[in-house]
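Hi, here's the filled form for the chain we discussed.

Project: internal
Contact: R.S.
Residues: 418
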Amino acid sequence: MSETIILHCDLNHFYAAVEELHQPYTRYVPMAVGGDKDKRHGIILAKNPLAKKYGVQTGEPLWQAKQKCPNLLILPARFSLYMRFSKKVMDIYQRYTDRIEPFGIDEAWLDVTSCKTLYGNGYEIARKISDDIQQECGLTVSIGVSDNKIYSKLGSDYKKPNAITVITPENVNQIVYPLPVEDLLYVGRATKQKLYRFGIKTIGDLAATPLPFLMNHFGKWGLVLHRFSNGLETSEVKAYSHQTLVKSIGNSITSQVDLKTLNDVKIVATVLCESVASRLKQHQLATRTISISMRDEHLHSFTRQMSCEVPTDVSEDLIHYAMILFKDNFDFSKRYRSIGVRAEQLVHSEAAWQISMFIPFEHHLRSRVIDTTMDAIRSRFGHDSIQRGITLSNLSLSDFNPKEDHVIFPYAYFKESI
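And the returned structure, exactly as it came back:
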């Protein structure tokens, strides 16, 4: 292994583990954290070890999990509580290094190369971090140790819970290469199926595949697959700052009824965009890119994005761009259940940007005043105290509060086709 030491830390069944700390009796029953089944937010977000023994999986519908485990206890997600524990763990990481790159609420890469003279080799540092987290937070963590981010991520997934796996050039043949190719970061359903058609079923198969072949069949992504599988990924772990925690702001929802028309989508998108715009203002941020996602009845998801003409934190703008994306990319030949809107490429709202020649400033100012007025009314009298007219046309689609009901899905739920 080179002198670089990179850890990937993955808190074990994080949401469920936090709930077990606050409700100790749940340690002794099969338990999962999930959405509201009555509102069709019916997804398993995390499960405890007892539920896992029944085959309950992250991301599966609640009804399916209940079939596997009829006595499964399903608790609602409490995002603010999980964020508090996430921050406690982040404070522990900062004792060892300032090079911390969060990967969701419960995972992070750490470059601990600079502290090896103080704390020892990669395994010894990982053990100290694991012990600190368990003693101070009551949580367990699986840690992968390697000289690159991809292999360290494989290491944290290799053995769970509460394990440390060191991957070196000497053991890569035994640990990494036999793993199924879909275990590689960002290899989703579509890429896996294409690789399988070529007889590439393990990471070792992929590592041994000639680069020209991969480039010919996967384009630029072929180079990424080659580098990832051979442990040649060289991106640095970014220095931690509070800004790194807010790389994007978004909301998603699983509706009570299927989305069958563009107007149905606009009703839900309006509520989501209002929430995203409100949270952008709260963080004094504006977005340069709008991303939308939809998930069909088979849990296949699709995402599209586009750049804004100018950075914005106004809900009317977000709705405008989101509906362009929906109109251009979805024909509703399938039954869609979930929809999401996300603001990306964020900038500080006080930073100077060029005003568009084609959008009157008065229009932007008017829209922003409407937003801030609605936010103020809702803050005082509740979310339902004021609504846009379109959302009242179908309450079965708009009767939710994305700001208070917001659920952060774990990475495993979003790992989809690329």
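Let me know if anything looks off before we file it.
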